[in-house]
Write a structure and sequence with these properties.
Layout: H1 3-24, H2 34-44, H3 49-58, H4 63-70, H5 79-86, H6 89-101, H7 103-113, H8 117-128, E1 137-138, H9 139-148, H10 150-153, H11 158-178, E2 186-187, H12 200-206, H13 222-235, E3 245-250, E4 267-268, H14 269-274, E5 277-279, E6 288-296, E7 299-305, H15 307-312, H16 319-340
Antiparallel strand pairs: 1-2, 3-5, 3-7, 4-6, 6-7
Helix pairs in contact: 2-3, 6-8, 6-16, 7-13, 8-16, 9-11, 11-12, 12-13
Length: 348
């Protein structure tokens, strides 16, 4: 490498470091893309402009958030490894304890919302390990970083920029509605909050004050968190006393149908059987289902996912995630039954 090239490289990296430094210390209230948000808060929601500017100026860039968003931990893992992250003896034990401690609340949630308590407990376990990992980032920092810096630092992703900008809008709205300082609210690196990891718009749409204390506290109150998760599921179409998924045996040549789609299932069980997917249990032939293929340790395993599997996917639209929630819920139900002798099945 000649001296000219070395000199160019040195200048380039110096410029890069300067750019990162400027980004890291930027005043988000003066960001080129912030004016539209500020105008929306003022004109549409009647916020005080100086207040919104003060909140944005206080938001801090978090480079660790950009790194985390750029390499999601579980995305590339095969199913058998992904499963091991979430379905462990410790998480199962903690889930049973959580169920025991909140049995009355879970029973009330099931009665009012029609959602299987095992699914609610499973969600709490997978999302935050029963409140142990709710996130330590200020939500305003996470959302500002992702709305204003992530798409420029990684690549220009217009849809993501709009999504996180909208979440900032909802953050300020929920803070106003709940009488909270938005600078104090904590969450994950993506801005998800509380035991059930609700984004700000989900909080405003689905969080409920389940203990009637005038605040839907999903951060520290498991009662409100349980009610909020149950409400989320019922508002997304959960069908009471309906199955989630079942294993399938493969017979003959499989039809050319897309597997692992998290769209609402449209083909019937009969059509699945005709295409080579035979469920190991009997279900109505007109019930809709979608084929699932997962990478097990020693080969492929096949499942059929029903409507409620799709609904779990509204929480996180990944097949492996929805399957982990389902399988953990099954184990939790079995262990809760052994421990308490209360063996309520989802179709009882």
């Amino acid at each position: 490498m000649n001296r000219v090239l070395i000199s160019i490289c040195v200048k380039f990296f110096a410029l890069l470091l300067t750019t990162v430094s400027v980004t890291s210390n930027a005043d988000y209230s003066k960001h080129a893309d912030a004016d539209a948000l500020i105008t929306t808060m003022v004109d549409k929601h009647q916020f005080d402009r100086s207040q919104v500017e003060t909140w944005l100026a206080a938001a801090k860039h978090q480079s660790s958030i950009v790194k985390a968003m750029s390499r999601p931990a579980e995305k590339a893992k095969p199913w058998h490894e992904y499963r091991g992250i979430f379905i462990s003896d410790t998480r199962i034990s903690r889930g049973v304890t959580f169920w025991q401690e909140n049995q009355k609340t879970l029973a009330r949630a099931e009665k009012e919302f029609g959602v299987d308590p095992a699914i609610i407990v499973s969600i709490m376990g997978i999302e935050t390990n029963y409140g142990r990992n709710v996130g330590s980032y200020r939500v305003v920092d996470a959302l500002a970083t992702l709305a204003f810096d992530y798409y420029t630092e990684v690549e220009k992703r217009e849809s993501r920029r709009k999504f996180f900008t909208t979440q900032l809008e909802h953050l300020f709205l929920l803070a106003k509605e709940q009488g909270k300082d938005p600078l104090t609210l904590k969450g994950s690196y993506a801005g998800a909050m509380g035991w059930g990891q609700f984004m700000p718009n989900s909080y405003r749409n689905y969080a409920v004050d389940f203990d009637d204390d005038q605040f839907a506290d999903i951060w520290a109150n498991p009662t409100d968190a349980i009610g909020s998760v149950a409400n989320y599921f019922t508002k997304h179409g959960w069908k009471t006393n309906q199955p989630v998924a079942t294993k399938a045996m493969i017979e003959g040549k499989l039809g050319a149908i897309k597997v692992n789609s998290m769209r609402r299932p449209t083909q019937s069980v009969k059509q699945m059987i005709d295409q080579g997917y035979r469920p190991i249990e009997a279900f109505p032939l007109d019930m809709t289902a979608s084929p699932i293929r997962l990478e097990a340790k020693y080969g492929q395993e096949y499942w059929l996912g029903f409507h409620n599997f799709y609904v779990i996917g509204r929480y996180n639209p990944r097949t492996k995630y929805a399957m982990a929630v389902f399988q953990l819920s099954q184990i939790l139900r079995q262990e809760y039954c052994k421990t308490t002798n209360i063996c309520v099945q989802p179709d009882d």
